[in-house]
Amino acid sequence: MADSPDFDTSVPHEARVYDYWLGGSDNFEADRALGDAMIAAIPTLPVMARANRAFMERVTRHIVAEGVTQFLDIGSGIPTSPNLHEIARAADPDARVVYVDYDPLVARHARTLLKDVPGVAYAEGDLTEPATILADPLLPATLDLDRPVALMLVALLMYFPVDRRPERWVTELLDALAPGSLVAISHPSADFDPEAVAEANAIANRAGITLVSRTRTEFETLFGPAKLLEPGAVPLVTWRPDEPVADPNAAYYYAGLGRKD
What we know:
alpha/beta; 8-stranded mixed β-sheet; 38% helix; SAM-dependent_MTases_sf; transferase
Protein backbone atom coordinates (compact mmCIF):
# COMPACT_ATOMS: atom_id res chain seq x y z
CA MET A 1 0.00 0.00 0.00
CA ALA A 2 1.40 3.41 -0.94
CA ASP A 3 1.93 6.20 1.58
CA SER A 4 -0.95 8.60 2.04
CA PRO A 5 -0.70 12.28 3.00
CA ASP A 6 -3.76 11.80 5.23
CA PHE A 7 -1.91 10.08 8.09
CA ASP A 8 1.56 9.37 9.47
CA THR A 9 2.65 5.95 8.26
CA SER A 10 5.81 6.01 10.37
CA VAL A 11 3.76 5.62 13.56
CA PRO A 12 1.96 2.32 14.25
CA HIS A 13 -1.81 2.41 14.38
CA GLU A 14 -4.02 -0.12 16.14
CA ALA A 15 -6.37 -0.65 13.18
CA ARG A 16 -3.47 -1.27 10.81
CA VAL A 17 -1.72 -3.63 13.25
CA TYR A 18 -4.96 -5.60 13.49
CA ASP A 19 -5.22 -5.59 9.69
CA TYR A 20 -1.69 -7.03 9.55
CA TRP A 21 -2.60 -9.86 11.91
CA LEU A 22 -5.61 -10.63 9.73
CA GLY A 23 -3.37 -10.89 6.67
CA GLY A 24 -4.57 -7.63 5.13
CA SER A 25 -2.63 -5.19 2.98
CA ASP A 26 -3.64 -1.89 4.58
CA ASN A 27 -0.62 -1.65 6.87
CA PHE A 28 2.88 -0.21 6.85
CA GLU A 29 6.35 -1.06 8.13
CA ALA A 30 5.75 0.52 11.55
CA ASP A 31 2.52 -1.46 11.97
CA ARG A 32 4.18 -4.72 10.98
CA ALA A 33 7.12 -4.06 13.30
CA LEU A 34 4.82 -3.54 16.27
CA GLY A 35 2.66 -6.48 15.25
CA ASP A 36 5.71 -8.74 15.10
CA ALA A 37 7.00 -7.48 18.46
CA MET A 38 3.68 -8.35 20.08
CA ILE A 39 3.65 -11.73 18.33
CA ALA A 40 7.02 -12.41 19.98
CA ALA A 41 5.19 -12.13 23.32
CA ILE A 42 2.08 -14.04 22.18
CA PRO A 43 2.88 -16.15 19.08
CA THR A 44 -0.78 -16.95 18.39
CA LEU A 45 -1.96 -13.32 18.14
CA PRO A 46 -2.87 -13.65 14.42
CA VAL A 47 -4.92 -16.73 15.28
CA MET A 48 -6.65 -14.76 18.04
CA ALA A 49 -7.39 -11.88 15.66
CA ARG A 50 -9.05 -14.30 13.27
CA ALA A 51 -10.96 -15.89 16.16
CA ASN A 52 -12.24 -12.46 17.15
CA ARG A 53 -13.32 -11.86 13.57
CA ALA A 54 -15.11 -15.21 13.58
CA PHE A 55 -16.94 -14.20 16.77
CA MET A 56 -18.19 -11.07 14.98
CA GLU A 57 -19.55 -13.25 12.21
CA ARG A 58 -21.23 -15.70 14.60
CA VAL A 59 -22.78 -13.06 16.81
CA THR A 60 -24.07 -11.12 13.79
CA ARG A 61 -25.81 -14.21 12.43
CA HIS A 62 -27.24 -14.95 15.88
CA ILE A 63 -28.52 -11.40 16.31
CA VAL A 64 -30.37 -11.58 12.98
CA ALA A 65 -31.79 -14.96 13.98
CA GLU A 66 -33.09 -13.28 17.16
CA GLY A 67 -35.02 -10.85 14.95
CA VAL A 68 -32.78 -7.77 15.26
CA THR A 69 -31.72 -6.62 11.80
CA GLN A 70 -30.28 -3.17 12.55
CA PHE A 71 -26.66 -2.65 13.59
CA LEU A 72 -24.63 0.23 14.99
CA ASP A 73 -21.00 -0.87 14.67
CA ILE A 74 -18.68 1.45 16.59
CA GLY A 75 -14.92 1.25 16.06
CA SER A 76 -15.62 -0.73 12.91
CA GLY A 77 -11.99 -0.65 11.75
CA ILE A 78 -10.55 -1.18 8.29
CA PRO A 79 -13.17 -2.97 6.14
CA THR A 80 -12.40 -6.67 5.83
CA SER A 81 -14.59 -8.99 3.77
CA PRO A 82 -16.95 -10.40 4.73
CA ASN A 83 -18.02 -7.16 6.39
CA LEU A 84 -20.73 -7.02 9.02
CA HIS A 85 -23.37 -5.81 6.57
CA GLU A 86 -22.52 -8.66 4.18
CA ILE A 87 -22.92 -11.22 6.96
CA ALA A 88 -26.16 -9.68 8.21
CA ARG A 89 -27.64 -9.41 4.72
CA ALA A 90 -26.77 -13.00 3.91
CA ALA A 91 -29.19 -13.85 6.74
CA ASP A 92 -31.69 -11.05 6.02
CA PRO A 93 -31.39 -8.94 2.83
CA ASP A 94 -33.16 -6.04 4.56
CA ALA A 95 -30.58 -5.68 7.34
CA ARG A 96 -29.33 -2.13 7.87
CA VAL A 97 -25.97 -1.01 9.26
CA VAL A 98 -24.29 2.20 10.39
CA TYR A 99 -20.52 1.91 10.78
CA VAL A 100 -18.78 4.43 13.06
CA ASP A 101 -15.07 5.17 13.31
CA TYR A 102 -12.88 8.24 13.74
CA ASP A 103 -9.85 7.10 11.75
CA PRO A 104 -9.15 8.75 8.35
CA LEU A 105 -7.80 5.50 6.87
CA VAL A 106 -10.99 3.68 7.87
CA ALA A 107 -13.12 6.54 6.51
CA ARG A 108 -11.40 6.46 3.13
CA HIS A 109 -11.89 2.72 2.68
CA ALA A 110 -15.39 2.59 4.15
CA ARG A 111 -16.75 5.39 1.97
CA THR A 112 -15.34 3.77 -1.14
CA LEU A 113 -16.78 0.40 -0.17
CA LEU A 114 -20.21 1.67 0.85
CA LYS A 115 -20.76 4.41 -1.72
CA ASP A 116 -23.51 2.62 -3.61
CA VAL A 117 -24.81 0.27 -0.89
CA PRO A 118 -28.37 1.24 0.14
CA GLY A 119 -29.26 0.85 3.81
CA VAL A 120 -25.62 0.98 4.91
CA ALA A 121 -23.79 4.14 6.01
CA TYR A 122 -20.49 5.26 7.47
CA ALA A 123 -20.37 8.03 10.08
CA GLU A 124 -17.34 9.69 11.60
CA GLY A 125 -17.51 9.43 15.37
CA ASP A 126 -15.74 8.45 18.56
CA LEU A 127 -17.07 6.19 21.31
CA THR A 128 -15.93 8.78 23.87
CA GLU A 129 -18.53 11.19 22.47
CA PRO A 130 -21.74 9.15 22.30
CA ALA A 131 -23.93 12.25 22.08
CA THR A 132 -22.19 13.21 18.85
CA ILE A 133 -22.76 9.73 17.41
CA LEU A 134 -26.42 9.83 18.39
CA ALA A 135 -26.89 13.30 16.89
CA ASP A 136 -25.51 12.32 13.49
CA PRO A 137 -28.37 12.57 10.95
CA LEU A 138 -27.09 9.41 9.24
CA LEU A 139 -28.33 7.40 12.22
CA PRO A 140 -32.09 8.07 11.90
CA ALA A 141 -31.74 8.23 8.12
CA THR A 142 -30.45 4.64 8.05
CA LEU A 143 -31.89 2.97 11.15
CA ASP A 144 -35.39 2.94 12.62
CA LEU A 145 -34.55 3.96 16.18
CA ASP A 146 -38.03 3.01 17.38
CA ARG A 147 -37.03 -0.61 16.78
CA PRO A 148 -34.23 -2.62 18.46
CA VAL A 149 -30.66 -2.04 17.30
CA ALA A 150 -27.59 -4.20 17.88
CA LEU A 151 -24.72 -2.14 19.28
CA MET A 152 -21.45 -3.76 18.19
CA LEU A 153 -18.32 -3.12 20.28
CA VAL A 154 -16.00 -5.82 19.00
CA ALA A 155 -12.37 -5.51 20.20
CA LEU A 156 -12.83 -1.81 20.91
CA LEU A 157 -13.09 -1.22 24.66
CA MET A 158 -9.57 -2.60 25.19
CA TYR A 159 -8.23 0.83 24.22
CA PHE A 160 -9.77 2.49 27.29
CA PRO A 161 -8.35 2.02 30.82
CA VAL A 162 -10.64 1.17 33.72
CA ASP A 163 -10.40 4.71 35.12
CA ARG A 164 -12.00 6.10 31.94
CA ARG A 165 -15.11 4.02 32.69
CA PRO A 166 -16.09 3.16 29.11
CA GLU A 167 -19.22 1.43 30.45
CA ARG A 168 -20.74 4.92 30.87
CA TRP A 169 -20.48 5.48 27.11
CA VAL A 170 -22.06 2.07 26.51
CA THR A 171 -24.88 3.01 28.89
CA GLU A 172 -25.47 6.36 27.17
CA LEU A 173 -25.73 4.69 23.78
CA LEU A 174 -28.03 1.94 25.04
CA ASP A 175 -30.26 4.46 26.81
CA ALA A 176 -30.95 6.03 23.40
CA LEU A 177 -31.89 2.72 21.77
CA ALA A 178 -35.25 0.96 21.84
CA PRO A 179 -36.06 -1.77 24.39
CA GLY A 180 -34.92 -5.14 23.11
CA SER A 181 -31.73 -3.68 21.68
CA LEU A 182 -28.61 -5.80 22.00
CA VAL A 183 -24.94 -5.12 22.69
CA ALA A 184 -22.13 -7.45 21.57
CA ILE A 185 -18.68 -7.06 23.14
CA SER A 186 -15.37 -8.87 22.85
CA HIS A 187 -12.33 -7.94 24.92
CA PRO A 188 -8.87 -9.37 25.66
CA SER A 189 -8.05 -10.64 29.14
CA ALA A 190 -4.89 -11.51 31.05
CA ASP A 191 -6.83 -14.26 32.83
CA PHE A 192 -5.57 -16.76 30.27
CA ASP A 193 -1.81 -15.97 30.43
CA PRO A 194 -1.02 -13.01 32.71
CA GLU A 195 2.71 -12.71 31.91
CA ALA A 196 2.41 -12.94 28.12
CA VAL A 197 -0.51 -10.52 27.96
CA ALA A 198 1.23 -8.03 30.26
CA GLU A 199 4.30 -8.13 28.02
CA ALA A 200 2.27 -7.63 24.82
CA ASN A 201 0.33 -4.74 26.38
CA ALA A 202 3.56 -3.10 27.54
CA ILE A 203 5.00 -3.34 24.02
CA ALA A 204 1.90 -1.65 22.59
CA ASN A 205 1.90 1.02 25.28
CA ARG A 206 5.55 1.88 24.61
CA ALA A 207 4.63 2.33 20.94
CA GLY A 208 1.95 4.86 21.88
CA ILE A 209 -1.07 2.54 21.72
CA THR A 210 -3.05 2.21 24.93
CA LEU A 211 -3.98 -1.43 25.31
CA VAL A 212 -5.55 -2.91 28.43
CA SER A 213 -6.90 -6.27 29.46
CA ARG A 214 -9.79 -6.93 31.81
CA THR A 215 -10.77 -9.73 34.15
CA ARG A 216 -14.00 -11.56 33.54
CA THR A 217 -15.74 -9.51 36.23
CA GLU A 218 -14.44 -6.26 34.74
CA PHE A 219 -15.58 -7.42 31.32
CA GLU A 220 -19.11 -8.02 32.59
CA THR A 221 -19.36 -4.43 33.86
CA LEU A 222 -18.87 -3.15 30.29
CA PHE A 223 -22.43 -4.18 29.39
CA GLY A 224 -23.90 -1.42 31.53
CA PRO A 225 -27.67 -1.87 31.94
CA ALA A 226 -27.85 -4.74 29.44
CA LYS A 227 -28.54 -8.22 30.79
CA LEU A 228 -26.10 -10.86 29.58
CA LEU A 229 -27.74 -13.58 27.51
CA GLU A 230 -26.73 -17.23 27.40
CA PRO A 231 -24.01 -18.44 27.46
CA GLY A 232 -22.93 -15.33 29.40
CA ALA A 233 -19.42 -13.90 29.52
CA VAL A 234 -17.31 -16.74 28.19
CA PRO A 235 -13.97 -17.36 26.46
CA LEU A 236 -14.45 -16.02 22.96
CA VAL A 237 -14.08 -19.25 20.99
CA THR A 238 -16.72 -20.91 23.19
CA TRP A 239 -19.42 -18.32 22.45
CA ARG A 240 -21.95 -20.32 20.40
CA PRO A 241 -19.26 -22.04 18.28
CA ASP A 242 -20.12 -23.42 14.85
CA GLU A 243 -18.25 -26.63 15.64
CA PRO A 244 -16.70 -28.34 18.68
CA VAL A 245 -13.88 -26.35 20.30
CA ALA A 246 -10.60 -28.16 20.91
CA ASP A 247 -9.07 -25.48 23.16
CA PRO A 248 -11.51 -23.17 24.98
CA ASN A 249 -8.67 -20.77 25.81
CA ALA A 250 -7.22 -20.56 22.28
CA ALA A 251 -7.98 -16.82 22.17
CA TYR A 252 -7.23 -14.64 25.18
CA TYR A 253 -10.59 -12.86 24.89
CA TYR A 254 -13.96 -12.87 26.57
CA ALA A 255 -17.13 -12.38 24.55
CA GLY A 256 -20.77 -11.84 25.33
CA LEU A 257 -24.13 -10.54 24.14
CA GLY A 258 -26.49 -8.49 26.31
CA ARG A 259 -30.06 -7.25 25.93
CA LYS A 260 -31.59 -3.99 27.08
CA ASP A 261 -34.96 -4.48 28.78
